[in-house]
Structure formats: structure tokens, C-alpha cells
Amino acid sequence: MTTKTIEIGEFTLKRVQEYVWEMPQEGDMRVPARVLASEELLSEIKEDKTLTQLHNTTQLPGIQEYALCMPDGHQGYGFPVGGVAGIDAEDGCISPGAVGYDINCGVRMVKTNLRYEDIQGTEEDLVNALFANVPTGLGGGGVVNNAPVEEILERGVEWAVEEGYGVETDLAHCEDEGFRAEADATAVSQKAKDRGRNQAGSLGSGNHFLEVQRVTDIYDDNVAAEFGLSKDQIVVLIHCGSRGLGHQVCTDYLRDIEQTHEGLLNQLPDKELAAAPAGSRLAEEYYRAMCGAINFAWTNRQLITHQTRQVFERVFDRSWQEMEMELLYDVSHNIAKKELHTIDGEQKELFVHRKGATRAFPAGRPELPPAYRDVGQPVIIPGSMGAGSYILRGGEQSLDETFGSTAHGAGRLMSRTQAKSEYWGEDVMDDLREQNQIYVKAESGATVAEEAPGVYKDIDDVVTVSDTLGIGDKVARTYPVCNIKG
DNA sequence: ATGTGC
């Protein structure tokens, strides 16, 4: 491979290896930045403010090694979606904008023992039953209304299991066992709690969805067998977050941090990067509130899992246990977490910020549950509703290259406004049904237009970068059967 | 993403 340099606006990116572009450290940058992308993906990334935001990110106090942009990166609030930053948890800072407004937005995959032929012909019944039983769209209305928010914030999925919305084995198949112990409900404002109270068990809007899929390709027979995945198997993917509660937590702390830590803010190139110094009262409080919102989001996905199991029981007339509707895994893609990483040969505690990036720990990491400790964690990467998704396995290189992270999805190609000017929801749904036998049911046609397959990058290209770099290895691919949205 | 704004 020849060395190559690309000039993009004010930035010079040097290709340091295939799919790795480095922005050298200069000026006020504390570390260099790296974009992991093919030339094609880079040409899409350069179209918005992603590179400027990535450059800004390198100025966060305590940032280690590199500011990173995953192959699905695009611009976000202050910090790119698809951004990863490992920041010293003792001397650095924590930044709400580097976690995102939708705290613990993430995906979980529920397996079944059904084959594609078992459900052909029932797609419309299934999509209607799912739509009728899983709350979708903006505003209130959840599986549980007037929910005990404080308890959910502090106990996470364990609360749901205790209430009969899941089983013990669900806990072991969720990142962090569906629970962050540092959560503190008293750090979450009354307004945030009030917004969450009637949203426990609701999909929301935007890119969130519940999709029934079939496994179409297996790339690694051994790992797929460990994960319990096989060709033509039916699986369910649930993509949603912490709804208005997490959004309010982000809003509350951004405002407070901007005012309280104005000195630090003035040193940063973008107000949207507002950060609280490690060890400060607000850093601690934000972390505890964020962990609460994380627990709420996991519980949200657990309640939706419960509804999904019930719908399958009615449509296929047998128990969910009989259909082996066990969780593969639940992964977050908007979080910060204290993790130990090796920096210059020494173990260091970092706030790893992953915003639109998925943890991708390889075999051996102590955080992994017993089922995956010897194989590496399942990483679930959802594509657009016309494309299907990937299941990867945390790669051996991820700890060295990306603080144990990879991409989180296809990544948007255009704004929601632009999408609505190019697509009409009803047409998108008709095309998917007639040309691809994909059945979509949505609360709002506008949302379908905003999420049309053509609005997204090619998920295959994104995953190729992850697989080639060894940060997340291809295990299996799925294709949509039916999809419900907000 | 979001009871989609200062």
C-alpha cells in the first residue's frame, strides 16, 4: 500500500495503514485524531462537520492516544456520532455531548428457533401484532405507565426481571448485566423522572425500530455456533434508548456544566463540547445520573422484549421458551464508562466516551459474561430498514486501536430535512414490500421518509472496515422481514 | 435523539 495524503478543507489526513487516516497533532490539539474509513466512506464523512468536530475533540483535557472516528461517523452535537474518546478519569474530564442526548441508545437481539419458512405468510399478522403491542412514536405511553422510575434508575433490568418482564438469563446477556451500580436517582431531576415515568417500554421515534429479521449469511461457523446463530434463523432486533428521560438528563447537565465550568468551556473550541473536570461535583453527579439513564434504557429494551415474546406466543401459538427466545446480547452505543486501558504500557482508568460507537471487547476481557469470555462479545450493528444488520465479534485489535470499540450502524448520508424532500413515506413502504418483501408499519410517514434506505451509508462498507482492521470480526448477517417504527 | 424552538 502506498502512502497517501488527502487535503480536506483545512485538514491534512495521512493514510497510516489501509482504512486508517491520521490527522497529525498540531496547534492546540492534545493528541492526533484518526478516522477509520475506506476512501469512499471518507469522501462521505468529509461532507459535513465531522472532521472539524473530531479535531475539536482532541482538545478535551486528559484525552489519551487518539480521538477516533468510526467508519459510520457523521456530525453530531459537538462531538461526532461515531466518535470515541478515552479520557483520563482522574485528571481529565467527562463531556455529556460526547455521550449524546439519547443516553444508552442501543440494540439488543432476541433469538428464536423459528426458520424463515415458519413465518412466511404471517408477516403482516406479525407486524400488525407487534405494532399493536409495542408503544411507538413521540411522547408518552409505555408498556408500564406510572412506572417506579427511581427504582428503575437504580436497579435496571433486575427490576424488570423481578416484576416478571424477563428471566434471570436475560441479565447475563446484556452489557454490564443490564445494571450500572453507580446510578443515583437523586442526581436525576424531577423533570427527567416525570418524562420517563410514562415511557418505560416504548420505542420512540427517529431511527428507532423493532425489526424481525432472518439470518442470511454466516461468515464464521465456530463463532456463530457459540452465539447460537444459523442460516435462515429468525431473530428480532430492538433499537431504542432512554427516551425523554435520558434527553432531559443530558439537557440538565449540559446547562449546569456550561455555567459552572465556564473556565474550561472557554478553553474549548466549541461550546457544545462542554465538559466537567474529573473529580468535580458535576462530573460525579453527571456520571451517576447518566448511569441511571443507562439503567432506564436497558429496562426499556427489556420491557419491549417482554412484549415481543408475548406477541410471538400469540401469533405462533406456543410459549416463548418453546421458541427459545433468548437474548443474544444487548449493546449500548451512546455511553461513557470508567474502564481500564493500557496506555504507554500502564493500566489507566479512563472515561471511555462512545457516541454512536459500540463496545467490541475481545475474548478475555473481565467485563464479558461467562458465555462470551472465551470467544469475544457479540457486537450488533444495525443497518437501514432495507439493508439488514450484522453480528460481529469483538476483535483482537480493538483494545490496541479503539479503546475496545467499533461502529454502531450505517450512519446517515443526509439530514432529516433533506431526506423528507427526497422521499415520501408511503412510497418507501410500498417499494420495500413489493420489491423486497419487507413489511414496514410506522406511526408517521415522515419518519419512514427520514429513515429511507437511501438516506444511509452502505452497511457492508462500514463492516468491511471493522473486519479488516480486526476491531470487530464478521460473524453473521441478517435481512429484514418486517419492521415497526415511530 | 427529543412533549423537534430562546
Automatic annotation (TrEMBL):
Binding-site residues, Mn(2+) 2: H239, H333
Active site, per annotation: H408
Cofactor note: Binds 2 manganese ions per subunit.
Catalyzed reaction equations: a 3'-end 3'-phospho-ribonucleotide-RNA + a 5'-end dephospho-ribonucleoside-RNA + GTP = a ribonucleotidyl-ribonucleotide-RNA + GMP + diphosphate; a 3'-end 2',3'-cyclophospho-ribonucleotide-RNA + a 5'-end dephospho-ribonucleoside-RNA + GTP + H2O = a ribonucleotidyl-ribonucleotide-RNA + GMP + diphosphate + H(+)
Keywords for the protein's UniProt record, in alphabetical order: GTP-binding, Ligase, Manganese, Metal-binding, Nucleotide-binding
Cofactor(s) demanded: Mn(2+)
InterPro entries attached to this UniProt entry: RtcB, RtcB-like_sf
Binding of GMP, residues: 207-211, 333-334, 382-385, 389, 408-411, 485
Signal peptide, first to last residue: none
GO terms assigned for molecular function: GTP binding; metal ion binding; RNA ligase (GTP) activity
Protein family membership: Belongs to the RtcB family.
Function, as annotated: Essential for tRNA splicing and maturation. Acts by directly joining spliced tRNA halves to mature-sized tRNAs. Joins RNA with 2',3'-cyclic-phosphate or 3'-phosphate ends to RNA with 5'-hydroxy ends.
Protein name: tRNA-splicing ligase RtcB
